[in-house]
């Protein structure tokens, strides 16, 4: 065997050892003599052995689980929250050159961002505005990982682990809310029923016979239940008629006598009222003004 054949065999073996097969969902980030060469794939590629090497990078979407995080909300409620992050490599060269381990770095960034964002919201917002929080997390993580060649497609908060005391408090709050709604619905029903009863009373008031028919219908309904006691309602109008008759024939009360007024003797003499009272009764005249009681017998003699 000559030298040419030996060289040909060595070259063939070297070529075969330098061939690589890259799958459809992968890309090969190649380095030649330690420097970035290019990104190759998919399919069959040639990578010189001993002087070049490559890193395989998957372009498929990766579901990255975020472990449970201790979070204190804005209203000082302590809870545990875990989430899931969906990401894929957009630029394989940047994912290899710019960062050592893009999966680990993205996971750590997602954990810190989850604690920071949830700490700015109240518990009610965390439970009711889940979509808004997910969009905020996605925007922040995607902006931070863009220079790493990573594209974040979605971030979803999976589970919110509340303390037992908070769960009982929320259950009592929900029960009170349901009772409030039930009372409001009951009040609205009473209002509608009162409006219908008022309309029915107005219609019955135009036809007096209608109340008698309603009375007979009520008695029929009571009798159909096979009760041993039947209560006959007494119409209010009948009591009103009896009260009118009583007021009409009741005896009138006698007028009260005017109160007596005490008048002094000098004032009565001055006004002339005493002679009128003493008229027809001689010898009973009152003494004149200024006359003493001792002079009164002399005037009579």
Properties at a glance:
alpha+beta, 11 helices, three-stranded antiparallel sheet, 301 residues, Tetrahydropterin Synthase, Chain A, disordered C terminus
Describe the structure.
Among the domains are: 56 residues, no CATH class; 101 residues, 2-Layer Sandwich (Tetrahydropterin Synthase, Chain A), CATH 3.30.479; 37 residues. Helices cover 50% and strands 21% of the residues. It is of the alpha+beta class and 301 residues long. The termini are far apart. A hairpin with a 2-residue loop joins strand 2 and strand 3.
CATH topology annotation of the domain at 62-162: Tetrahydropterin Synthase, Chain A
How many DSSP-defined strands? 8
Approximate shape: rod-shaped
Unreliable spans: 261-271, 273-301
SSE order and pairing:
Layout: H1 3-18, E1 19-22, E2 26-32, E3 35-40, E4 43-46, E5 52-58, E6 62-72, E7 78-89, H2 92-97, H3 102-118, H4 123-128, H5 130-145, E8 150-161, H6 164-206, H7 208-224, H8 236-249, H9 265-271, H10 273-277, H11 296-300
Antiparallel strand pairs: 1-4, 2-3, 2-5, 6-7, 7-8
Helix pairs in contact: 3-5
In a nutshell, what does this entry contain?
The protein has helices at residues 3-18, 92-97, 102-118, 123-128, 130-145, 164-206, 208-224, 236-249, 265-271, 273-277, 296-300; strands at 19-22, 26-32, 35-40, 43-46, 52-58, 62-72, 78-89, 150-161. With 301 residues, the chain is of the alpha+beta class.
């Amino acid at each position: 065997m000559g030298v040419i054949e030996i060289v040909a065999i060595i070259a063939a073996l070297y070529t075969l050892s330098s061939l690589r097969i890259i799958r459809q969902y992968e890309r090969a980030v190649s380095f030649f003599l330690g420097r970035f060469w290019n990104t190759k794939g998919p399919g069959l590629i040639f990578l010189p052995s001993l002087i070049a090497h490559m890193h395989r990078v998957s372009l498929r979407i990766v579901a990255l689980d975020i472990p449970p995080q201790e979070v204190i909300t804005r209203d000082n409620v302590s809870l545990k929250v875990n989430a899931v992050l969906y990401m894929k490599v957009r630029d394989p060269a940047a994912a290899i050159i710019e960062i050592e381990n893009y999966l680990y770095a993205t996971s750590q960034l997602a954990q810190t961002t989850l604690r920071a964002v949830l700490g700015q919201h109240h518990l009610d917002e965390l439970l009711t505005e889940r979509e808004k929080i997910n969009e905020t997390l996605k925007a922040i993580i995607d902006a931070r990982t863009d220079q790493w060649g990573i594209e974040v497609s979605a971030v979803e908060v999976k589970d919110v682990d509340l303390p037992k005391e908070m769960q009982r408090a929320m259950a009592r709050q929900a029960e009170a809310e349901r009772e409030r709604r039930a009372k409001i619905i009951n009040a609205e029903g009473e209002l509608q029923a009162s409006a219908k009863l008022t309309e029915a009373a107005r219609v019955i008031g135009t036809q007096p016979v209608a109340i008698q028919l309603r009375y007979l219908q009520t008695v029929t309904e009571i009798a159909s239940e096979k009760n041993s006691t039947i209560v006959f309602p007494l119409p209010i109008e009948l009591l009103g008629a009896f009260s009118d008759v009583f007021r009409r024939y009741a005896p009138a009360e006698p007028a009260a006598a005017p109160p007596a007024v005490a008048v002094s003797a000098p004032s009565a003499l001055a006004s002339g009222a005493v002679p009128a009272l003493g008229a027809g009764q001689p010898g009973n005249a009152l003494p004149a003004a200024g006359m003493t009681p001792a002079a009164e017998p002399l005037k009579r003699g």
